[in-house]
Amino acid sequence: MNYKIAFKKSVSRDLKKIDKEQAQRILNKVESELSGKAGILPALTGKFSGLKKFKVGDFRIIFTIKDDTALILRIGHRNEVYKSNIINKNRVDQEDLNGG
Q1: What is the pTM of this model?
Q2: Are 55 and 29 in contact (CB under 8 A)?
Q3: Domains and CATH numbers, the chain
């Protein structure tokens, strides 16, 4: 199954913290591969249970699947992305699903 890709608003802040060339590489990989692989990628456990991860080099894309959409919640370096309280996975605004 191919999933639509949507980004939570806060992802733009995550991308600003990353070198532009690296951020573009991540976005290209998300666009070309995540849509088809989202359903089979590894699920996270512990406080992140219910979420999934997609690896691009040393960076991790944390996302959830909502109906036919892979909603990207966070993008960050593997050493940092799991340290923060990234999201309330139960609070997914319709605006987020619309790519807003």
Answers
A1: 0.83
A2: no
A3: 4-97 (3.30.2310.20)
